[in-house]
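Need a sequence for this fold. Nothing fancy.
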């Protein structure tokens, strides 16, 4: 088995590059839908997209995050079997998601719902989207950042080419945009599977034990990620319930522009889990503390600079990108960019808690802040429109950040009190990230 470990700067560059490709494709998808389709079509697409994010992050929390952390405790001959168990479980998740999507589409069709075709398409493409996400995360776990970047670039080009063709032909809407997503991800699955297959060997005798280990470790992360995703997309669903899909489309356009810097945070998040686990296992607690601080300071600086940029440019960028129907919402972009700064400031703390095998702390943080955020978004939307909803998101982000760092200090202190043998580097004095 290869012992190659990539250079940290090079790994960060490719991880951020990979996230930039995905974020760029999503951004251009929103722009094309905003310009060539109605706001309601963009709103339906955004709602379906939020469901896919919920499922993929849940799959990652329950399967690939335990795989990343726990595989270091396995013997060489056992690791590939562990990967095979994770992959087989993901096949079951994909099949279940597809069946649910098709069933919901059937119910909407019988009820005369206008989104039935988009939901049906979502159900049909679910296996491709979920399998590609799992396989690329397996490659991330093995620090194959360059390969993931190359595959993401190929898939992104294919998807954008399909979207551009649909826009030129006047056939771009929520359903066809989702179909283009599924077609490009099918190519991604084929290529990624070829690279990841050496890490995936299905062994029936260890399947039950592996799935049980993933559940024991990942159930808290699953709950935390699910609640976090609901918090992130709660405003979309609140607006859909209170104002309809057209308002969701307007909000999505603003949020996409506000979060255009997200490739940096997403790219670092993709590599933080494996890197933090590696640093903790190989170099001890103090090395993990240095990673936390460096990443946090870098993310705050980058996102704060982008928020300042949006404060001056958002009013003119919105109509230029999406059309005049989206003008007058510059304040929404600025508020959501501020919320992105708060989210980035807590990212490393959240990942560190998982690396320290205390994911229940993230569950507590997100469970407390979710209802608070949703109430503020709902009240703000009713009283002040989109700006009020964005202000609710910002306030919820502030509460989440404070709770996250308070928890990481507690987890850190508890980890220091473990016996010396729990830390591979021995009893060292860490650089406490919470002081």
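Here you go.
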């Amino acid at each position: 088995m290869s012992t190659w470990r990539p250079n940290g700067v090079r790994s960060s560059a490719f991880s951020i590059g990979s996230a930039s490709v995905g974020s760029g494709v999503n951004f251009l998808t929103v722009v094309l839908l905003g310009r060539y389709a109605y706001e309601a079509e963009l709103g339906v697409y955004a709602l379906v997209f939020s469901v896919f994010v919920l499922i993929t992050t849940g799959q990652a929390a329950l399967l690939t995050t335990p795989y990343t952390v726990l595989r270091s405790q396995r013997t060489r001959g056992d690791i590939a079997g562990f990967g095979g168990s994770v992959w087989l479980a993901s096949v079951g998740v994909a099949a279940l998601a597809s069946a649910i999507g098709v069933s919901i589409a059937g119910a909407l069709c019988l009820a005369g719902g206008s989104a039935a075709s988009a939901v049906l398409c979502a159900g049909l493409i679910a296996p491709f989207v979920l399998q590609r996400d799992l396989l690329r995360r397996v490659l991330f776990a093995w620090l194959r950042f360059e390969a993931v970047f190359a595959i993401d670039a190929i898939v992104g080009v294919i998807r954008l080419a399909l979207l551009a063709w649909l826009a030129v032909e006047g056939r771009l809407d929520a359903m066809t945009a989702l179909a283009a997503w599924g077609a490009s991800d099918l190519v991604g699955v084929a290529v990624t599977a070829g690279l990841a297959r050496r890490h995936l060997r299905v062994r029936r005798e260890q399947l039950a034990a592996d799935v049980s280990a993933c559940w024991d470790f990942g159930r808290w992360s699953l709950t935390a990620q699910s609640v976090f995703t609901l918090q992130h997309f709660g405003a979309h669903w609140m607006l859909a319930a209170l104002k309809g899909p057209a308002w969701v489309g307007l909000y999505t356009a603003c949020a996409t522009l506000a979060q255009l810097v997200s490739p940096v945070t997403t790219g670092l998040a993709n590599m933080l889990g494996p890197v933090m686990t590696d640093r903790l296992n190989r170099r001890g607690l103090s090395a993990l503390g240095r990673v936390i601080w460096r990443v946090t300071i870098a993310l705050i600086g980058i996102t704060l600079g982008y928020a300042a940029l949006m404060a001056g440019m958002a009013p003119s960028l919105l109509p230029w990108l999406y059309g005049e129907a989206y003008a007058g919402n510059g304040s929404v972009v600025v508020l959501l960019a501020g919320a992105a700064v708060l989210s980035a400031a807590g990212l490393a703390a959240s990942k560190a808690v998982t690396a320290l095998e205390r994911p229940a702390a993230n569950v507590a943080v997100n469970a407390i802040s979710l209802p608070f955020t949703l109430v503020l978004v709902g009240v703000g939307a009713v009283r002040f429109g989109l700006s009020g909803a964005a202000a609710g998101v910002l306030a919820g982000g502030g509460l989440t950040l404070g709770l996250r760092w308070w928890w990481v200090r507690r987890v850190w202190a508890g980890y220091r009190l473990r016996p010396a043998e729990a830390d591979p580097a021995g009893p060292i004095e860490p650089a406490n990230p919470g002081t």
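For context: The chain has a mean pLDDT of 82.
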